[in-house]
Amino acid sequence: MAEDHEAQAILSDSPEGVFGSIFTAGNGDLRHIVVYPCRDFTQVNFAIGIPDSFVHNSGTLSHSWTANGSTDDLLRALQGFPHWLTEVVCHASSLKLFQVRDVKPLQSYFKGKTVVIGDAAHAMVPYQGQGANQALEDADGLGDLLADVDDPSHIPEILRLWDSVRRPRASAIQEQSRDSLLRITTRGTGQSILDVEAHVPIKEVLKQSAS
C-alpha cells in the first residue's frame, strides 16, 4: 500500500498518527474494525468484524474456516464508517474471511488420563491476542508436571492439579476476550470513535517496556 500513490493521498487526509497506533472503530451493530501496524510499521493490518449476514458467500464459510473476501462485500459491510477509512481498506493487497468462534468455559479439561488443551479446551475470540499463548501455557504446564512421572497411576492426580491452575486462568481470559469484543461492537459510530489521541502509539509502548 505504501507504493500506491492514490492510497498515499487518502492516508494524508486521515487523522494524524492514526496508523502509528492501535485503534478501534465500531458502529453499535456488531460491525467493527481493529487496526494495528505490523512488521516494524511496514504493513498495517485491518481486522474487520462483521455478522455472517453481510457476507454473500457465508454459505462457503459454513463448510470452511476460511475463504476469500470481495471488495463489494467489504464496502457493503462498512457503510456508515468514515470515507477515508473505507477507501484505505479497499486498497488492501488481499481480503480473507475467517470465522470467529468461541466456547463457554468448560467444567473440566481432563477425565482420567485424557486431557484437552488449546482451542479444544478454551477457544476464544481474538480480542486479547491470547489464544496461542494460552495453548503454550497448557503445554508448558503439562510438560513440567509430567516430566518426572514414573508411575502412570499418578497421572489423573497430576492432571487434576494442572486443571486447578490452568482452567481458572484460561476461562478468565476467555471471558475478558469476549468482553473486549462487546466493548468494541457497542461503541457508537462517528469520527469520535477514531480519536487516536486516546490511544498510546505502539512505539511509545515499546519504549516504556524497554526502559
Automatic annotation (TrEMBL):
Where does the FAD-binding domain lie? 106-176
Species, as recorded: Colletotrichum noveboracense
Which GO terms fall under molecular function for this chain's record?
FAD binding; monooxygenase activity
Q: Which UniProt keywords apply?
A: FAD, Flavoprotein, Monooxygenase, Oxidoreductase
Q: Does the keyword Acyltransferase apply?
A: no
Family the UniProt entry places it in: Belongs to the paxM FAD-dependent monooxygenase family.
The protein, known as: FAD-binding domain-containing protein
Give the source lineage, highest ranks first: Eukaryota, Fungi, Dikarya, Ascomycota, Pezizomycotina
Asked whether the keyword Flavoprotein is assigned, the reply is: yes
